[in-house]
Description:
The chain is of the alpha/beta class. The chain has helices spanning about 5-10, 75-85, 285-295, 300-315, and strands at about 15, 25, 35-40, 55, 70, 95, 100, 105, 110-115, 120, 125, 130, 135, 140-145, 150, 155, 160-165, 170, 175-180, 185, 190-195, 200, 205-210, 215, 220, 225, 230, 235-240, 245, 250, 255, 260, 265-270, 275-280, 285.
Amino acid sequence: MQLSDIASQLDGLTITGNPSHEVTQISSPENANASSLCVIWDKSALAEIPLDAAIITRPEDFPPGHDGLTCDNPRAILPQLIAIFTPQTPHPKGIHPSSHVSPSATIHPDAYIAPLAYVGDECVVGAGTVIEPQAVLLMRVRVGSNCLIHSGAVIGADGFGFERTPSGLVKIPQSGGVMIGNDVEIGANTTIDRGTMGDTVIGSGTKIDNLVQIGHNVKMGRNCIICSMSGIGGSTELGDNVTLSIQAGITDHAKIGDNVIIAGRSGVTHDIPANSVVSGFPARPHNEAKRALVLAADLPSLYKRIRILERKLEGMPE
């Protein structure tokens, strides 16, 4: 495919260099060769790319000597480019005979239930939604349209609810369900517990990575991003556009405002107001957490200096 062909298919691209330059694949910088097209949004990666490889980057970052394309936001155009070079095979529709679907479940004719998937009692699966092999929807899970539930996900298992009594721990029955909006993606081996009473809610447009745990009665807003190995305690509320980076954790019953970013490995133990960026444990404003880390690194030398001062005050030799 020539650069001119790509420019004609996608809006916002301007050709630089030879429009007849042939490319056959999208490549990362480290794997680039003469038939590659590399999408670069971090100009530091340009040094790795051979001169005969074509590139897409911002006009102000485009290096001399290359053929390629420019646009204002190279990263945003990447999904469209991959679709051109690697067309996706559409999922089939219907219910695979090796899956289990409860007679009380409602499956849209345009949905697909893959081999060995499980769909339990009173579940609803919307149009265009795909339940991949060995994914599990237990009782009263409602999934909207155009969702993707990856293999191994378990949605609607019991929430972790127990009451201490003189005779031991007594299990609290979990009678609620899970409600998932439209255009949601849930990664492999992620677990979302059903509500104790009422539903656990995942808002439309939200994307959840692999190996995430979401507790009972969590209410998650629209277009959230939840990265791998994160955990959200029961009855926590997340606003819209919240981002949890890898291995972040949130305690139960917290309220997280719109547009909050929680850095990787942070532990949130309290409410976080909208538009905040937090990190560390316990999570605090990111700049404050960075200052604390810098000071912590100086603690050994500070301790030594304090000991010297103490000895001087006591009249002891250093």
